[in-house]
Amino acid sequence: MINELVAFARAKARAEARRAAVRAAFALVGGVFIFVAVSGLFVALFFWLAPGLGLTAAALICAGVAIVLAILALLPLAFKPRPAPQAGQEAALPQFVSLMAKTAPNLAPRQLVLTAALLGVALALSARGSKK
Length: 132
Hints:
mainly alpha
């Protein structure tokens, strides 16, 4: 039974890896085509501006347009919203406390001290996380 589960898990992992590789390959090819298209647009802009403004001015305008487009592309990274807290982290502490309360009567004194220390660390970490 365990061998069947392992074989099933391996098959699912291989299928997911294959799907991810195909997606990555298509993304890479798409990125290359986008790069070629944008490069062509900058070349066209340069040759359109060069006769009227000169080579240096046309090159500087193309560089300025590229910088502005790069800033606009990176702007969402500067104002990225904070991710919402995960519900699983908040629910773990009450479960931990109830487990400690159920097992406390059966513990030796050293184990009680260790349990209290673990509970203190858990409470400190949860209090530190709630201040943010």
